[in-house]
């Protein structure tokens, strides 16, 4: 029986992932195992954890691909990756992300810096954004010996999936010239990014729209304008023009047709493509697949096709 305070009454339910109660308590259901850094025998990629802030726990897991020819001093592009999970679950250390980023580092020949950021509700937004920004600036500074020796921070990319894709957009906003010491970003890869808004977009399911509005209020209780806060709705009335939000030269937006976020992802891409932003934006669609399928089954044919497109994008194609 529910208590008088409603402590046992569910407010937001994402089956198999998390459950949020009316008193603000969260029950995390999706708990993949954490994997240690080190040598990945399958890919030859080696990884290590670097603690950036002992107070907040901000940590970056750096992945260095196997150098095929150690005498070749050509430096590798560098990619900062922001994991998904709605800002409430998941980790840079989880099996999903550790395995996928080993594969990405090896296939794309890219150094990856994966951000372990603070989660809501214990640390509401903008805590995650601030952690990711600090990690991005640290990566761009090449303070790390692997990045300094083997990385080319002039070819810096930022990427993320789901909520991490949303955070990647926020990194572009912060890098768009409003911060004098902001990094120069060549490209952004948004995998199935999470956006919302106070109005339905074409093709969006009403249940998904309602969930997103409620969920944004939970992870960012201080948001101005509710789900029309520009951080979750970059196309909201009163938001800065997109050409003033995007601090990179190129962008790849990836979506899956069976994803409940497909309509908002397409709306975001269309808005960027129609804006006065001088960069180039590409769209990649995985037919018949669901949200972040490539993390769940990275060896499937559609995941391989997506990886091929990401590799080509990083290479400049």
TrEMBL record:
<dbReference type="GO" id="GO:0016787">
    <property type="term" value="F:hydrolase activity"/>
</dbReference>
<protein>
    <recommendedName>
        <fullName>Alpha/beta hydrolase fold-3 domain-containing protein</fullName>
    </recommendedName>
</protein>
<dbReference type="InterPro" id="IPR013094">
    <property type="entry name" value="AB_hydrolase_3"/>
</dbReference>
<feature type="domain" description="Alpha/beta hydrolase fold-3">
    <location>
        <begin position="79"/>
        <end position="294"/>
    </location>
</feature>
<dbReference type="InterPro" id="IPR050466">
    <property type="entry name" value="Carboxylest/Gibb_receptor"/>
</dbReference>
<dbReference type="InterPro" id="IPR029058">
    <property type="entry name" value="AB_hydrolase_fold"/>
</dbReference>
<dbReference type="Pfam" id="PF07859">
    <property type="entry name" value="Abhydrolase_3"/>
</dbReference>
